[in-house]
Amino acid sequence: MTSQPQPQNAPATGAAPSADPQHWLAAAAVDAAVYDLRPDYRVMLMTADGLRGGPSDAVSEQMLAEAEQAARQLIAGCSLEELPHLAAWREAYRAFGAKPQRTRPSVEALLRRLDTAELPRVDRITDVYNAISISHLIPMGGENRAAYLGAPRLVRADGSEPFDTTAHGELAVEQPSPGEVIWCDDAGVTCRRWNWRQCTRTRITPEVSSVVFILDVLDPVTDEGLQSAANALEAALFRLSPHASVQRRLLSSCSRSSSPRSQTSG
Prior knowledge:
Blueprint: H1 21-27, E1 29-30, H2 32-37, E2 42-49, H3 58-75, H4 84-95, H5 106-113, H6 124-136, E3 140-144, E4 153-156, E5 163-167, E6 170-174, E7 181-185, E8 188-192, E9 197-198, E10 210-217, H7 223-240, E11 245-252, E12 261-264
Parallel strand pairs: 1-4
Antiparallel strand pairs: 2-10, 2-11, 3-10, 4-7, 5-6, 7-8, 8-9, 11-12
Helix pairs in contact: 3-6, 6-7
């Protein structure tokens, strides 16, 4: 997901998360209207607490540089539009009225930067989840869980929900288009157009230690492919923060949805 600058009145990034991660994940939901749009949609929600944030460093640089090399090999010799999973996301965007040539799925936006340059180094947490996103070719977002009010929900917007962002360098509040697929909490929109752009309120900063990661997939990515990406992200987080506590939950339109499971580095 593309992030935005942090507004001055955002919740303190060092604040305690709003709920126990297991209960918080259990309350997360995907609305039936989203599954009506794409019955093949699945999402892995992963919380990580006790992370050590901070500026990009040698550890995050190594992981991101290796991922850039792997991604270039995966996409060599073909246009991004020909990649089956990216084509599926373009189709999903069109289904709710978005124009994927103008507002691209997050992983496609990252991969397009690799055509001419390396990805920007943002901070050690963001660099690592970007690394997993491009090396597995799936959209992925990371947000400050302490800034959430309530649990995350994926819904189709009615058009009245507030989305805090920046416009022309100034803080602004926008509304999504009716029918747009949005992630939200009790305070408003946290990400527009499924996985296009995050709000300012939940943006990761170097001080953040509690994060929720959102891993989105459509067919032809399998459940095994999604689990592989989640496992890679979990291992990368433990490289950054050996004493972190990680929990995850899979949500889908069928019985594959799971209860939260936890993992702590030994």
